[in-house]
Amino acid sequence: MSLALVHSRARAGVHAPLVQVEVHLSGGLPFTQIVGLPEAAVRESRDRVRAAILCAQFDYPARRITINLAPADLPKEGGRFDLPIALGILAASGQIDRNALASYEFIGELALTGELRAVDGALPAAISAANAQRCLIVPPGNASEAALAQHAEIKVARTLLEVCAALSGSKQLPDAQVPPTETAALADLSDVRGQQHARRALEIAAAGGHHLLLLGSPGCGKTLLASRLPGILPEASEEEALESAAIASISGRGVDSSRWRQRPYRSPHHTASAVALVGGGSHPRPGEISLAHNGVLFLDELPEWNRHALEVLREPLESGTVTVSRAARSMEFPARFQLVAAMNPCPCGWAGDSSGRCRCSAESIRRYRARISGPLLDRIDLHLQVPRLAPSELRGDTSAGESSAVVRERVMQARTRQLQRAGKANAHLGQAETLRDCALSTAEGDLLEQAMERLQLSARSMHRILRVARTIADLAAETAIQRTHLTEAIGYRQLDRGGVGGEG
């Protein structure tokens, strides 16, 4: 029977669905046809495969060749199917043993010489192959990335001929090796002079996974503070690191295998579009909010961002996922990021500064701040005013504050309490979980009601205040939320007092 079956993996978001490459040889005029929703790069593989087979000293069958990429309703893209198609043709024509293909999966683009070239999405393919209990053969360019899936069996082949030799048993392919992990030196919190209130807010944000908005004049240290947040976050678990690496794998940017355990830090420019943030394209790829998954997304000059671009953040901030829908298909990407935003208080940037240099009218300040909608502000847990430091506090001989290592130890202890109590960070608690874990006494409950009435807070803001108060109590190693914890949490809703934000 002139029929062969080869296993491969497609790219569909962060997933790698199974693709069965079916090759059938029949009589008739020599012709190669590929079916199963192939895009242009896949259809062109017949020419690359033909040249690679001939260069490897095999015979290309002079028969009608039908190649089916199943399932038929899954779009196929890229050159990742070159290797399985070539092996299917060789197996269907009897030049290699078709039974040897059953326990393997293959991805890789073929050069005309038969060399294997790297493709996108090797890590999701490795994870899926391991779940299917099959060995994955990859090009050398994908070896270190695929090896990050440590429970998977990954083999590396340089050429089509090497793969055929391995299938015949005449050659052993090497295992993919994970390169040594490097620990890059992160910016240290001790570089921040003064700003004790801001340092405290940063610690609370790190401990509970809360979103943070910094409001202050130019040069007061907003960007400096944001860049120090990754250094005080708890170390990512292996599962979290693999999720982030899988997103980077399908993004087209590749994975830095030596630093894959580090939490991502993304800081797109304020001219970025909504598509750049959430992802898109005819074949959807992840945007900045997905690339920041399990890490930090820093948005500087928040009012300068396009209003539409900011509003697309609403749903991901709540759900932790983003769905990109296009005519051809719809993709869901994870987007559980920690937002740190920064803005000036007015168009000139000096409103409220002791120098008195601001000449902006009250109306222009209102319009400037109203560029950020109320619903978006609601979703940011901590609003903080960052004051301009006095020149004496910026001297090099002033005492440095606590280092990132010291603060990170407190953050990890608080995060451990949260994981033991609810299995997640406080910022990710649902409504029922918030009411359960953030219960208040009668006196504290009355205080919160008064604050809600005075500041005209929404129910969403109330729940976020409760979660922040719970984080403050965790940092203090307290089992119950005290009045001081609640008061401090209410104090971080500064923009709610000013009525910032337009209709939402």
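[next item in queue]
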Amino acid sequence: MNNVILKMTDITKSFSGVKALKGAALELRAGEVHALMGENGAGKSTLMKILTGIYERDSGEVEVFGEKVEFQNVKESQEKGIAIIHQELNMMKDLTVAQNIFIGREYMKFGAFIDDGKMEKEAKKLLDYVGVKISPHKRLGDLTVGKQQMVEIAKAISHNSKLLILDEPTAALTSVEVDDLFRIMNELKARGIGMIYISHRMDEIKRISDRVTVMRDGEYIGTVNTNETDNEEIVKMMVGRVILGKTKEKSACPDDAPTVLEVKNLNVGDTVKNVSFSLKKGEILGFSGLMGAGRTEVARALFGADKKDSGEIKINGKLVNIETPEQAVSQGICYISEDRKRFGLLLDKSVTENSVLASVPKFTKFGFIDDISARKEAEKVNKKLRTKTSSMSQILRNLSGGNQQKVVVARWLIKDADIFIFDEPTRGIDIGAKSEMYELMEELVKKGKSIIMISSELAEIQRCSDRVIVMCEGRKTAELPIEEATQENIMKYAMMRNKEGIA
């Protein structure tokens, strides 16, 4: 375990005069899982891009397997035995498992034909080595995300990689797939492969890592042995303060608050079955349940993104017909998707353009957009949200996940929506950004806005909700005041299968 295979020392990197890294450092040993943690924007991705040859460092030293290196591109880092498994897998879904593993390095026969048989044979050896039972001739797109990830690891091993970087590898995995991944990682550890593990999930860090290095604002904060620390210490290192807060003990929403939304007997195909609920002004209504419970489907139907089969929706006591997102927005409803990159943002547009996207007519005069007014409004709202950006013209793609999320919220604040639907609002963002998101939601309801919050994190449900709706297999199985929303109660109702549910 003392065999150091990577040493990054005093790494600096600036973009357009803004310092992204200021004396960053990292050490990795053979046969070690080393967690790299920090808030979004702390510099983790930048440091890894320097390691893999995507960026050149301004100063500092990188030593890999005892040799000082300065990679000019990804190919050079691969040749040195470094591989990265990204959160968003970049693979060819229509090709077979074997074809994906050997893409660009295909085995040939007779000098002109791809030898699929040989590739499948070699792929099977790699998959067996990794310990995964996957047919090498299976189409990759037919596999689960977890299995696709295993294929990516096998591909890395095929390059004879001895240093793996896993970036939020469990974000889209089931608990069973997480167990499989950790089993494989432990096997790779035993073979002397060193792994850098980037994650915001504390329980996983404690379970799989040997050491933890924390970064903050582009700087190296410290490294601790996982078995000699606790969550509180790591959080303090990450953000410099204790955050997140405790379980909400009682509803912050007054009993006599008016009802702003009523949903009766909502049905959407086989995914939402006769669901009814209400939402009060100034209330955070939590939606909990296991994967496939139908929570997102309820949200999408409310927003008009998916067509409902039947059911009534009332806004402020008035029956409304919502068949499109445009109609939902006109009724004061906004939807902040868990997949913000796919449904929420224009990644190649600026902070200003994304912020005012839903309010273009507001800034249009004589057929032209008033860029100055739009920028001023975007700047004012994003400043209130504490969005970290170098300028309003910064491209969204270059912001951290947490700050991208804030820009989506800014859009609906500018639009002055009344009902906010947050679908997994803290998915893929770090602990510090989570805390800010919770504070933001609390500020919104204090101003009279109402929130539906869908979350898979029980602690998050308990931290934020005034009331909790629990769903299972498309049905509402419980409606709990926050005082009764214990994790045991929520899980009991979340697993209440084959029941009619409650209205």
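[queue empty]
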